[in-house]
Amino acid sequence: MQIETTPLAGVLVLTPRRFADHRGFFSESWNRRTLENAGVNLPEFVQDNHSMSRDAGTLRGLHFQSPPHPQGKLVRCGRGRLFDVAVDVRRGSPTYGQWFGIELSFENGKQLWIPAGFLHGFVTREPDTEIIYKCTDHYAPECDGAVRWDSAGIDWQVKGPILSEKDAVAQTLADFDTPFVWESGK
Ligand SMILES: Cc1cn([C@H]2C[C@H](O)[C@@H](COP(=O)(O)OP(=O)(O)O[C@H]3O[C@H](C)C(=O)[C@H](O)[C@H]3O)O2)c(=O)[nH]c1=O
């Protein structure tokens, strides 16, 4: 397991080992003990999500769940290719409003750990792209929120993305009154 830090404290890039042979490959996509042995203690996951986006240029985000049901997410790409982004919205964070993006694909097997306190979104780079992610809290529609994809200065490298109705009318980051507080060292 390769573990890389990012410029946003708490956000990690994880790359599980792949055992390739003449049939293809095998990989442990999630193993708590492997991470704990490497000094990474993630919260408990209680829900797995899986979505498929038919067209390249489909953008889902920027989403969050506010307290009391904030969600940390461990994200990977099961098929195709996508650009995954986390935006720091923890009040008081030295990187408030900053974003980190990375290409996740079936080919590269990379995963992005995004703690609670971040907006999350992605744009697909290929048709029929599937995203699979583990969440640290259950879906709570009353806590579900969105911030406009184009209001955080993110270089999505996409023009006219395919959006849900909800995402098309979301608030801007400038108008967002974050419910998350920076807890240094977390
Ligand atoms: C998120 C979620 C949704 N739903 C239902 C609610 C809607 O009827 C339907 C589609 O939901 P939505 O349009 O919010 O799905 P996405 O646009 O893919 O949203 C997700 O995409 C971004 C990138 C995320 O990080 C979040 O997990 C989530 O916000 O699934 C559920 O039943 N459970 C859930 O956990």
TrEMBL record:
Upper taxonomic lineage: Bacteria, Pseudomonadati, Pseudomonadota, Alphaproteobacteria, Rhodobacterales
Pathway: Carbohydrate biosynthesis; dTDP-L-rhamnose biosynthesis
Listed InterPro entries: RmlC-like (IPR000888), RmlC-like_jellyroll (IPR014710), RmlC_Cupin_sf (IPR011051)
UniProt KW keywords: Isomerase
Quaternary structure and partners: Homodimer.
Enzyme class: isomerase
Pfam assignment, any one: dTDP_sugar_isom
Domain of life of the native organism: Bacteria
Function recorded in the entry: Catalyzes the epimerization of the C3' and C5'positions of dTDP-6-deoxy-D-xylo-4-hexulose, forming dTDP-6-deoxy-L-lyxo-4-hexulose.
Family membership noted in the UniProt record: Belongs to the dTDP-4-dehydrorhamnose 3,5-epimerase family.
PANTHER family, per database record: DTDP-6-DEOXY-D-GLUCOSE-3,5 EPIMERASE (PTHR21047), THYMIDINE DIPHOSPHO-4-KETO-RHAMNOSE 3,5-EPIMERASE (PTHR21047:SF2)
Name of the featured protein: dTDP-4-dehydrorhamnose 3,5-epimerase
GO molecular function annotation: dTDP-4-dehydrorhamnose 3,5-epimerase activity
